[in-house]
Design goal:
By secondary structure, the chain is of the alpha+beta class. It has a single domain, classed as Orthogonal Bundle (Cytochrome p450). It is built from 17 helices and 10 strands. The strands form 3 sheets. The chain has a 5-stranded mixed beta sheet with strand order 1-2-8-5-3, sandwiched between helices. A 3-stranded antiparallel beta sheet has the order 4-10-9. Strand 6 and strand 7 form a beta hairpin. Helix 7 runs antiparallel to helix 9, helix 9 packs antiparallel against helix 13 and helix 13 crosses helix 15. The radius of gyration is 21 Å and the shape is globular. The structure holds protoporphyrin IX containing FE. Protoporphyrin IX containing FE binds next to helix 9, helix 13 and helix 17.
Amino acid sequence: MLAPLNPADPGFARDPYPYYAHLRSRGPAVRVPLANGTHAWLVTGHRQAREVLADPRFSNVPPQGAGRPKQDSPAQRARGCLARHMLNSDAPDHTRLRRLTTAAFTPRRVDALRPRIERLTDGLLTELSGRLAREGTADLVDHFAFPLPVLVIGEVLGVPEVDRADLRTWTYRVGSPADALEDGAADDAWTRLHAYFTELIATKRDAPGDDLFSTLVHDADEGGLDDGELLAMAFLLLFAGYETTMNLLASAALLLLTHPQELADAQQGGPGHWAAVTEEVLRHASPLEGTTWRRTTEAVDLGGGTVVPAGASVLVVLAAAGRDPEYFPDPDAFRPARHRSGGERPAPHLAFGHGPHFCLGSRLARLEAAVALPRLFAALPDLRLAADPETLPYRPGLLVRGPRTLPVRSG
Ligand code: HEM
């Protein structure tokens, strides 16, 4: 019998890997009791993760009633809107939404964001250096890893510069743990985001900009997304794009600060070495611990005597798939060299998912890391951790993983 899994346990949040290794040794999918009294099937092997994510019998549509607003308040309605996005849909709905969005997210459009991402990064680094000089320490999550992705999504959505500070504040509030804010602050932020995005769509319709979101709004007028879908898309881009990238940047900074030789190699090696660092961070510290929940539409035989019954909740644990020793020798070691040309040529990691819902923003996320990481360590060559890495708090839960704070000092 497995003991109930408590995703809120700080020890588990910081280091869930031994538990996942144990599950992997028990079979392709294991039914795990959760501390809230429910059960879930967890998939921890690399091969099985790919199979499940490509299999249409594992549906992304939440069960009827899930995610519906419990009371009819503006904040609950805003949350309800978000639930209509494409990550919560299956083919053929998903195929249509995905096709329309992919048309806006072309590699050329994403790559064209580079100079703006460089400018935003440099702006944040100037502020961060000033803060370090004034105060001696700073939190790299609050002052770098969090604001950069939010500002970049602001570019994608075409949010005018004057409104970026608001976007940052509201996003911070809706993403904060409930006990970290004063009463009503999170609800207020949800309502404001909802009103803001509604107005943004109307503005883009009247006066499209050169941002990706304007392309989507324009395509909507040509028979694409309806207004509700556009609103859900704005929320999805914000939420899919910020916390994930924030965790990538924060975990990368932490791993490099605790592996000085790997940092020195990247600094001497140039862009190819930095790209290998990013891939290794994605594998070793998957920013999404699990995918979104899947639900079986019928009983599925995964082999090895494991049959997942119909109607079961299934979580593909990407963090565990990245540490599968069958695919990644010495899986717990942080070793960017395995991704360099002439390296081990490991299997592709699954940090961006697999199959029809494969991350739409992977190119953008990699671009952000390619700009942000070398610039961070060039601007602050004497950056040091100002806390014991073993005591850093991690986000609780099974969906996202990354340090909540990363205190640093310079010199
Ligand atoms: C390091 C950063 C990121 C990681 C690790 C990541 C990871 C993922 C994963 C694993 C999925 C699939 C989830 C599932 O199957 O349940 C996904 C989907 C998605 N991601 Fe990302 N993501 C990142 C950044 C971004 C960015 C920057 C954007 C957009 C601006 C974005 C937009 C999306 C969207 C729209 C989907 C849904 C695709 C669909 O349903 O077809 N992501 N992401």
